């Protein structure tokens, strides 16, 4: 990319250009940088200099950069020249009528972008704190529950705490564990407990897996499905690195049955959707599967039993939080209701 010429002019260190059009200015009274570690203060470096550099890189022109910074083109040139001197890097190659970012300039710009994103996250966090006067509940959950059970619990929670902000993040148990460990989430719901984390934990549920199939499937009339019944069936499996996969593999291995695995996915929700499309059968968590019954699938007990479990996790020693305690109580109640509904479905056949 080529930009217009940046003059190598002397810096007036007492002069600052105006704020950028994104409204973010993080300059202390003394004019020095206040930003993440990627751009720690060095003598002579001011946040306005970095802001000018970023504006030129984004707009491709010192003239355009000056417009969005509400200053003059010479001021932008001064800022960048002083920045280069302060950090000891040549950020641009000067050519007749244009400048081109150097390799160092492009690398430095990547660090600048990361720092600005960090500043925006801090600003967003402050906005959330101001906005959610009733507190903020941060939930991490495995994908299995993030599309049904958790939203139903959140709805009930929100009816009791309408002023409370809620954020929910979904992923594998490993990711949820990390979020809770980093205190990015107040409570987590996982299917696998990692002992290297210092969590307090308690069981949310333990249920028997079911065989999910289209309603018109030849096995739909069976009272229970066994490994031999699935020998020639297109089978939708969990991914190789999923903890739930090893339990299923062991059952079929002991029975001497090779499954005809045609599809793999790490998420129960995707598995259920694929079954609903008639692409195969699967052994899944019934609490996830029942949200897909309206799509023409049925659940049948699978024998021998394969357990699907979930646990609540939260850091040890954290002060008691009434919002977390209330959500956990509600989640347990909703889970009990879901399990009761499953029992009713089984009784109706």
Topology:
Elements lengths: L46 H13 L2 H8 L3 H15 L4 E4 L2 E4 L1 H29 L4 E7 H4 L2 H12 L4 E7 L1 H9 L5 E4 L8 E10 L1 E5 L19 E5 L4 H13 L4 E6 L2 H9 L5 E3 L1 H4 L7 E5 L5 E9 L6 H27 L1
Parallel strand pairs: 3-4, 3-5, 8-9
Antiparallel strand pairs: 1-2, 5-12, 6-12, 7-10, 7-11
Summarize the structure in words.
- By secondary structure, the chain is an alpha/beta fold.
- It has 3 domains: 37-129, Orthogonal Bundle (Arc Repressor Mutant, subunit A); 135-206 and 310-348, D-Maltodextrin-Binding Protein, domain 2; 210-305, 3-Layer(aba) Sandwich (D-Maltodextrin-Binding Protein, domain 2), CATH 3.40.190.10.
- It has helices at residues 47-59, 62-69, 73-87, 103-131, 143-146, 149-160, 173-181, 243-255, 268-276, 286-289, 322-348; strands spanning 92-95, 98-101, 136-142, 165-171, 187-190, 199-208, 210-214, 234-238, 260-265, 282-284, 297-301, 307-315.
- Strands 4-3-5-12-6 form a 5-stranded mixed beta sheet, with helices on both faces. Strands 10-7-11 form a 3-stranded antiparallel beta sheet.
- A hairpin with a 2-residue loop joins strand 1 and strand 2.
- The longest helix has 29 residues, at 103-131.
- Residues 1-42 have low confidence and may be disordered.
């Amino acid at each position: 990319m080529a930009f217009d010429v940046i003059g190598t002019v002397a810096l007036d260190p007492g002069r600052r250009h105006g704020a950028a059009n994104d409204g973010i200015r993080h300059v202390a009274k003394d004019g020095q940088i206040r930003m993440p570690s990627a751009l720690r203060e060095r003598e002579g470096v001011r946040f306005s200099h970095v802001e000018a550099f970023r504006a030129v890189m984004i707009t491709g022109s010192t003239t355009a950069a000056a417009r969005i910074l509400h200053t003059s083109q010479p001021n932008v040139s001064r800022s960048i020249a002083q920045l280069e001197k302060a950090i000891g890097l040549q950020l641009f190659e000067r050519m007749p009528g244009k400048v081109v970012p150097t390799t160092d300039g492009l690398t430095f710009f990547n660090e600048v972008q990361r720092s600005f994103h960090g500043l925006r996250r801090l600003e967003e966090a402050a906005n959330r704190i101001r906005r959610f006067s009733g507190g903020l509940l941060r939930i991490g959950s495995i994908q299995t529950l993030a599309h049904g059970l958790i939203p139903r619990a959140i709805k009930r929670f929100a009816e009791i705490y309408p002023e409370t902000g809620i954020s929910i993040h979904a992923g594998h148990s490993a990711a949820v564990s990390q979020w809770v460990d980093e205190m990015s989430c107040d409570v987590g719901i996982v299917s696998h407990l990692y002992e290297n984390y210092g969590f307090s934990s308690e069981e949310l549920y333990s249920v028997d897996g079911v065989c999910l199939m289209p309603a018109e499937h030849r096995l739909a009339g069976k009272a229970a499905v066994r490994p031999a019944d699935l020998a020639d069936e297109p089978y939708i499996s969990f991914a190789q690195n999923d903890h739930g996969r090893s339990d299923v593999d062991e059952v079929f291995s002991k029975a001497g049955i090779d499954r005809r695995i045609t599809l793999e996915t790490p998420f129960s929700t995707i598995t259920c959707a694929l079954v609903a499309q008639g692409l195969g059968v699967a052994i899944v968590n019934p609490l996830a599967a029942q949200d897909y019954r309206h799509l023409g699938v049925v659940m049948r007990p699978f024998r021998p039993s394969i357990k699907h479990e979930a646990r609540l996790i939260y850091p040890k020693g954290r002060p008691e939080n009434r919002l977390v305690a209330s959500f956990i109580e509600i989640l347990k109640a909703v889970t009990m209701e879901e399990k009761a509904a499953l029992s009713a479905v089984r009784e109706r056949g």
